[in-house]
Amino acid sequence: MGFDLDNVIQKQVRYSLLNSDIASNEELKAQLIKKFRPTKSLSGYFSYGIMNLTNNKADNHLDKNLGYAGNFEFGFKLNYQFGRTSSWGLISGIGFSWRTLNIDNNMFFMKNINANPVLAHYENGLSKSKLRTGYIIVPLGIQYNFSKIKNAGMDVEYRDYNKGFKVGANVYGGVKMATNNIVKGDGISDRDRSNYQVSPFIYGGQFTVSYNEFSIFVKKDFGNFFKNGNFENDKALIFGVVLWW
User: Which of 236, 193, 242, 181 is closest to 216 using CA atoms?
Assistant: First the structure.
């Protein structure tokens, strides 16, 4: 025998409303409309993605020595469903992102006489060489939900906007918080938070495919990772997973 959990929940909701102080069908319908109103929620999320730097030029010094790079992010996502039965909704919110470039081949970031970032070789061996930059990010886009319309009774229909299969597309913009150059190895342990010409602003686009609380995404920066022509035309491309998006 099949078991429909949604149908059981709907019956429990109607039963609880019918056993309240509601005296008429009109009041019951009004309470059902209130209970199954469009989704307007702000919920937490976190994500992790593998990052690469792409460009349309020959590999530069950074491209040749870039190891594993990643992006960790957490924040709050706003869902605003356009109607109780609508498949469409607005997505926005705020996130905090940390982008980390790990450098291989005993190379590390330093500054030349013009205060521009360059890669230099450390002769004694490095156990850690990374450049980490934090951003505050705001997304803005739309989401489409493929779940079916459900009936709560009394001709009140709704769509569970947070459940099922969803796709979303958004643009995003961000402002840099800080950059941290971390270098550790034989005879060296340094952490430098000064300016390494990482772009102070980021902007780009993201496409997300979700099922319930789990999502996969791809995002691409439209601007360069570094400013003022440093490591020219390197742009971040990130593939990753999200929970509770």
Answer: 242
pLDDT value at residue 29: 79
**What does the block give as tokens for 41?**
């929620």
Burial of 53 (0-12, 13-18, 19+ CB in 10 A): buried
Confidence of residue 145 (pLDDT cuts 50, 70, 90): very high
- Counting DSSP H helices and E strands in the chain, the numbers are 3, 13
Q: Exposed, middle or buried, 35 (CB in 10 Å: 0-12/13-18/19+)?
A: middle
Residue 200's φ and ψ, nearest 5 degrees, are: -75, -15
What does pTM read for this prediction?
Answer: 0.87
**Parallel, antiparallel, or unpaired: how do β-strands 188-192 and 66-81 relate?**
unpaired
Q: Which one, of 219, 223, 216, lies nearest residue 237 by Cα?
A: 219
- Rounded to 5°, the CA angle 223-215-2 comes to 160
Residue 180, amino acid = N
E strand residue ranges, 31-164: 40-54, 66-81, 88-103, 107-111, 117-121, 126-145, 150-153, 156-158
Interacting residues of 97 by C-beta distance below 8 A, sequence separation 6+: 71, 72, 73, 134, 135, 136, 137, 174
Residue/partner pairs of 26-31 with CB below 8 Å, 24 or more apart: 28/154, 29/154, 29/155, 29/156
The position carrying tokens 């270098």 is 183
Q: What percent of the chain has pLDDT over 70?
A: 90
